């Protein structure tokens, strides 16, 4: 790291030196393209009728593990500290999240907390709303917020955005060993496919479905949270940004698409503020709370939500 960006954002965001920039670019480019190749291979296997029930099962189970790791582990636990849990379950969440291939925990947490601090204003790492007016500006913004933001030559300073994680030796262990867990997430479906299917081809199709194609589909859904859910959807709360509750995105991302609710109450373990809003990770956490796997679940009470809603309506009568 070398120079800082504009004085308004200093010292939160820094420009990478050329060597670090190259490493970041290659890593991000690989993350964006390799799973896409796997997805294309999955389509070919489907087209040629070589996909088994085992492959579909592995895809579904690994998708659930991946999404729970990111949404419950990286997001609601690590970035927002919206509940507490044992070191054992914390480890399971960090490993599951790392299998998602969205980067090691320090990258994820610092990027995400920066997103909340600057939401849809200069400094937001992945806003779709800062790329000019008109339809073209919207399209450019959507594309940028979906994936190419990862190719940026800036980085979020760890000491500013995540000093708490930086001080935690056990959490930093999961940061340092990220690539091993990512590899494990590819190895598990491959081994299951080999053992159950009993052939190299069965191992390969399981690797494609439970590994690469699963990463592709789950991450495309997850990145819709930053792109689509900051452009289209309901806005019951005036958060001073463009965050929106987008139900289709929320269904595929276990509740993360309810961005307007989340930006209004970022510390809440639930993203739904009404019982019928789709928030699978919130429902899972409520259940885990009942059996004491997690505890000290934070959420605003009904009066706080109602007051916030009234204030928002007063400010933006059309919302
Ligand atoms: Zn957001
Ligand atoms: Zn958040």
Automatic annotation (TrEMBL):
Location within or outside the cell: Membrane
Bilayer-crossing regions: 25-47, 59-78, 178-198
MF GO annotations: oxidoreductase activity, acting on paired donors, with oxidation of a pair of donors resulting in the reduction of molecular oxygen to two molecules of water
Membrane protein topology class: Multi-pass membrane protein
Pfam family, one: FA_desaturase
Keyword terms of this UniProt record: Fatty acid metabolism, Iron, Lipid metabolism, Membrane, Oxidoreductase, Transmembrane, Transmembrane helix
Domain Fatty acid desaturase: 58-268
Record's GO cellular component terms: membrane
Annotated CDD domains: Delta9-FADS-like
Domain of life: Bacteria
GO biological process: fatty acid metabolic process
Family: Belongs to the fatty acid desaturase type 2 family.
Record-given protein name: Acyl-CoA desaturase
Source organism (scientific name): Streptomyces phyllanthi
């Amino acid at each position: 790291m070398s120079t800082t960006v504009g004085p308004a954002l200093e010292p939160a965001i820094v420009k990478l030196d050329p060597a670090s920039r190259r490493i970041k670019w290659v890593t991000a480019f690989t993350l964006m393209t390799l799973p896409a190749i796997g997805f294309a291979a999955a389509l070919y296997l489907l087209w040629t009728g070589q996909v088994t029930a085992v492959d579909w099962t592995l895809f579904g189970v690994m998708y659930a593990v991946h999404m729970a790791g990111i949404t419950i582990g990286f997001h609601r636990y690590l970035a927002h500290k919206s509940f507490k849990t044992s070191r054992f379950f914390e480890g399971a969440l960090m490993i599951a999240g790392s299998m998602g291939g969205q980067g090691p925990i320090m990258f994820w947490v610092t990027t995400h907390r920066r997103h909340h601090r600057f939401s849809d204003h200069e400094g937001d790492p992945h806003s779709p709303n800062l790329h000019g007016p008109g339809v073209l500006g919207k399209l450019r913004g959507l594309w940028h917020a979906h994936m190419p933001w990862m190719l940026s030559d800036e980085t979020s300073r760890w000491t500013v955005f995540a000093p708490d994680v930086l001080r935690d030796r056990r959490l930093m262990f999961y940061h340092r060993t990220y690539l091993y867990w990512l590899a494990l997430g590819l190895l598990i479906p491959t081994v299951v496919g080999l053992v159950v299917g009993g052939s190299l081809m069965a191992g390969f199709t399981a690797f494609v479905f439970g590994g690469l194609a699963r990463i592709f589909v789950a991450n495309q859904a997850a990145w819709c949270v930053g792109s689509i859910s900051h452009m289209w959807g309901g806005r019951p709360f005036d958060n001073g940004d463009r965050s929106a509750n987008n139900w289709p995105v929320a269904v595929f991302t276990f509740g993360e698409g309810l961005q307007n609710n989340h930006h209004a109450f970022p510390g809440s373990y639930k993203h739904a503020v009404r019982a019928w809003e789709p928030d699978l990770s919130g429902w899972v956490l409520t259940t885990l709370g009942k059996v004491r796997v997690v505890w000290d679940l934070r959420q605003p009470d009904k009066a706080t939500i109602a007051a916030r809603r009234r204030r928002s309506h007063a400010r933006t009568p059309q919302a």
